[in-house]
TrEMBL record:
Entry keyword set: NAD, Oxidoreductase
Lineage: Bacteria, Pseudomonadati, Bacteroidota, Sphingobacteriia, Sphingobacteriales
Keyword Transcription regulation: no
Entries under Pfam families matching the protein: UDPG_MGDP_dh (PF00984), UDPG_MGDP_dh_C (PF03720), UDPG_MGDP_dh_N (PF03721)
Residues annotated to bind substrate: F150, L151, R152, E153, K205, F250, L251, F252, S253, G254, G258, K322
UniProt record, GO biological process: polysaccharide biosynthetic process; UDP-glucuronate biosynthetic process
Binding, NAD(+): D30, K35, T86, T121, E153, K264, R329
Protein name: UDP-glucose 6-dehydrogenase
UDP-glucose/GDP-mannose dehydrogenase C-terminal domain mapped to chain residues: 315-417
Class of enzymatic activity (EC top level): oxidoreductase
MF annotations from Gene Ontology: NAD binding; UDP-glucose 6-dehydrogenase activity
Superkingdom field: Bacteria
Organism: Mucilaginibacter terrigena
């Protein structure tokens, strides 16, 4: 098939590349000329494991093209994906200006039937709005389809190539057939393509992310209670996760969720409920808990240092909101850094992929290490913020020599409590007893 993908952000680039991998002719279009030139030269603008190989292979085989020319990109395309930003507005609702603007531009250019697919995460009713924009700007018949993405950063390529399920919202039979053909190579093992109406499809994405965010906030509440009653959250997690009605995923306690999806989607669903005069109490609590949890390490530090962090030097391992990505959007690290700087502390950070993005945001407000150990040199304490694999088994003997004191505040529960006792560390984690 001939496909156009409008927008080459995280979702658009992964979508376009993975669609090309199964033999489709894909043209990705973006208004950013510098970014398009970069991709035409074979340079990836994002870090995502496994993407680079497919990206180069499909460029070399001329199945994956990049352009600034929308008209050229969609001219022969049977299916046009809209993978555009839907950032939260000031009131928390999703900003649809990019999606609706692109729909208007496309409508003015189409000359034959097109399937226009909203890949972006959008509120219920967006397909109707896109349809209205298209009908207002062309007499050419087009079908608008909702096809939400369920990509996890760090494993997005695998998620696209081997999806748990594909959700397609359409009431147009011609569009349904084309979308079924498009996704057939990805569901050969029996994983379903679930067809439904557009509004149900749009709500499915918000409901899925909000439920996962709820599991995270629930376990963080359990962790906070564990610290008060002397229980171990890791034991609790194993005990409840073995129940197949609950499952063992998204039960790890820590310092809150971040990234481009969970914070935005939970907020947008709550706003959508509010607009329909429904008080979504659970989601409001989920957001409140998460805001508090992002700063729980700072509260632990203030308690340890008697509320005086001025002049203290902290080493921070991890900046990205999760491992295997360079995405720092809504990352807990940024909230922690802001709080520590406000308290007069000095911070040196290290992250395998996220430092470039943080440096662009914070500049010289903090220092940047070249590796985990150089980052720890001379620090009063080490803070674990992102659970990258290389932080899981450090050289503790070397670390002991570099730190001023053997003090670790671990926001991701990476280390075994008995090991910390044996090594003689002060070790303060989430939902477990403090090793002193």
């Amino acid at each position: 098939m001939k496909i156009a993908v409008v927008g080459t952000g995280y979702v658009g680039l992964v979508t376009g590349t993975c669609l090309a991998e199964t033999g489709n002719q894909v043209t990705c279009v973006d208004i950013n000329e510098q970014k398009v030139k970069m991709m035409q030269e074979g340079k990836l603008p994002i870090y995502e494991p496994g993407l680079e190989l497919l990206f180069h292979r499909n460029i070399n085989q001329k199945r994956l093209l990049f352009t600034n020319d929308l008209a050229a990109a969609i001219a022969d395309a049977e299916i046009i994906f809209l993978a555009l930003p839907t950032p939260p507005g000031g009131d928390g609702s999703a900003d649809l200006s990019y999606v609706l603007g692109a729909a208007k531009d496309i409508a003015k250019l189409v000359t034959d039937y097109k399937v226009i697919v909203t890949k972006s995460t959008v509120p219920v009713g967006t397909a109707d709005k896109v349809t209205a924009v298209i009908k207002a700007n062309t007499n050419v018949e087009c079908a608008v389809v909702s096809n939400p993405e369920f990509l996890r950063e760090g494993v997005a390529v695998e998620d696209f190539m081997k999806p748990d399920r594909v959700v397609v919202g359409t009431t147009d039979e011609r569009a349904r057939k084309l979308m079924g053909e498009l996704y057939a190579p990805y569901v050969r093992q029996g994983n379903p393509v679930i067809f439904m109406d557009e509004r149900s499809s749009e709500l499915t994405k918000y409901a899925a992310n909000s439920f996962l965010a709820t599991k995270i906030s629930f376990m963080n509440e359990v962790a906070n209670l564990c610290e008060l009653v002397g229980a171990d959250v890791d034991m609790v997690r194993r005990g409840i996760g073995a129940d197949n009605r609950i499952g063992n995923r998204f039960l790890f306690s820590g310092i809150g969720y971040g990234g481009s999806c969970f914070p935005k989607d939970v907020q947008a669903l709550a706003k959508s409920a509010e607009e329909n005069r429904y008080d979504f109490k659970i989601l409001n609590s989920v957001m409140e808990v998460n805001e508090i949890q992002k700063k729980v390490l700072v509260q632990k530090l203030k308690k340890y240092y008697n509320d005086d962090l001025k002049g203290k030097k902290f080493a921070m391992w991890g900046l990205a909101f999760k491992p295997e990505t360079d995405d720092i959007r809504e990352a807990p690290a940024l909230y922690i850094i802001d709080e520590l700087l406000a308290a007069g502390a000095e911070i040196t950070v290290f992250d395998p992929e996220g430092m470039k993005n943080v440096k662009a945001l914070l500049g010289d407000k903090i220092k940047y290490g070249t590796d985990p150990y150089e980052t720890a040199a001379g620090a009063d304490a080490l803070l674990i913020v992102t659970e990258w694999s290389l932080f899981r088994t450090p050289d503790f003997e070397r670390l002991s020599e570099l730190l001023k004191s053997k003090v670790i505040f671990d926001g991701r529960n990476l280390y075994d409590l008995q090991k910390m006792i044996d090594l003689g560390y002060y070790y303060n984690s989430i939902g477990r007893k403090v090793i002193n």
